[in-house]
Give the backbone structure.
Amino acid sequence: MPEPLTARAGTESCEPFYLAAGNEVALFEQCHARQLAVMLKGPTGCGKTRFIEHMAWRLQRPLITIACHDDLSASDLIGRFLIRHDGTVWQDGPLTRAVREGAICYLDEVVEARQDTVVVLHPLTDYRRMLPIDKTGETLEAAPGFQLVVSYNPGYQRMLKDLKPSTRQRFVALDFDFPPLQAEVAIVEREGGANHATAHALVTLGQRLRGLQDRGLAEVPSTRLLIAAARLIANGIPEREACRAAIVAPLSDEATLVDAMRDLVDASFI
Ligand SMILES: Nc1ncnc2c1ncn2[C@@H]1O[C@H](COP(=O)(O)OP(=O)(O)OP(=O)(O)O)[C@@H](O)[C@H]1O
Ligand SMILES: [Mg+2]
């Protein structure tokens, strides 16, 4: 059985840069203090992961991230017995570790996980904050500071997969979207290492490309893509070439849409 992809962070000394769009920092702090589980909703590349890294740092909690996929089982989250040469030992899964340590447990793209895996989270989200471990007969009470956070991209595969109401209604949902122009320029400038004029041109281009959604562009450029283009430009790649490679090509293979996007790139960087 593969271990789920997990990562630990949160207690770094250096602050992960996050530029707030509204009241999300205060709202999340309240949810943390009131032991409420949180769902971060929003399109890919709009800052959800960066936000949770920033919040873990602010609250000085360890952050355990689990990338969800459709093979993820309850045992991958909770733990399993391992057979060794000297006997059988229990090994905690990442969710159990977070419950014991009082960490923030971030389940990325929770909609990818199967329902029978997701239900494991339910007893942790009600007031008892319990994690039953069937295989050992133990029931753990979550340590203070433990918080369950999930991310969810509402547009993505919406027709195929969705969360059950009994899951959704266990979370306070924070809506994320691409930042307003000046904020996104500041982010692209800082994260992409580009100068202000280039960052401004990239964000303006990004906004125009997002307008193509009405003309059939299924995936619009995220802040992440604009940052990738900025990095290439900052390191000497010509602007149009950088935009074609880092923004246009990842978004579509359809010739008419690619042509329309290239025209917008050419108009943005004359
Ligand atoms: N508000 C913000 N403040 C600082 N950086 C941001 C912000 N929004 C986006 N970014 C930048 O955009 C990049 C992509 O954001 P992030 O990885 O957090 O997206 P995401 O919403 O988690 O996407 P996905 O759904 O694909 O996981 C970050 O690495 C960061 O550089
Ligand atoms: Mg993410």
About this structure: The longest strand covers residues 79-84. The mean pLDDT is 92. Residues 17-19, 42, 44-50, 153, 179, 187, 191, 223-224, 227 surround adenosine-5'-triphosphate (ligand 1) (CB under 6 Å). The two ends are 53 Å apart (CA to CA).
